[in-house]
Structure prediction request, 176 residues.
Amino acid sequence: MTLPKKTEPTNRDLMNFLWEMRKDIKEIKTDVANITSRCERLEIKNQTLRKENDKLTLEIRRNNLMFSNIEDHKNETPQQLLTKITDVIVNGLGLQGMDIDTVTRTGEQKPEKTRRVRVRFVRQGHRDQVWNKRMTLKPKNNPIYINQDEPQRIIQANIEKRQLRKKESSKNQSSD
Prediction:
C-alpha cells in the first residue's frame, strides 16, 4: 500500500499504512522462518548424503592402495608402471602372484615431484597382504610409502582426530 498523494496524509492513512507494513513484516518473518527451516533440513540431508557417498567411495576403493615415491617418467607407459609396482611388491615386500587389475598415476605431472600411483588389486586378499607387509619395505635412496586409497575429506578428518588425541594425551601426561 502506498500513501495517498495528498499534501498531508491523515492519521487514518498513516494507521492504514502502518497496518499494511506490519502485515508485510509478519509475512516476511514467516517466509524467513520457513526458509531457515528448509535450509536446516537440506543441511542435514546434505550431511547424510556426504556420509553415504563416503561409504560408497570407500567400498569402490576397498581393493586399492596408493603407492608414493615411485619414480615418474614423462613418457611412462602403463606396462612400465605395472613393472615398477610389481618390482616393489615382489622384491620389496617378498610377495609373489599378486593379481593387479590396474595401475594409474594420479594428479598432474610436475617437475621434480612424483605422482602417486593407484593400484587396484583383483582380489582384496592380495591387497590386504600388500597392506600388511607395507612396513617391511626397506628404503634404498628413496622410501616408498603405501597408503589406503581414501577420499581427501576422510584423510583430513583422520588427521584432525589424531591431532586431537595427541593433544589430549599430552594434557593427560602433563597433569599426572
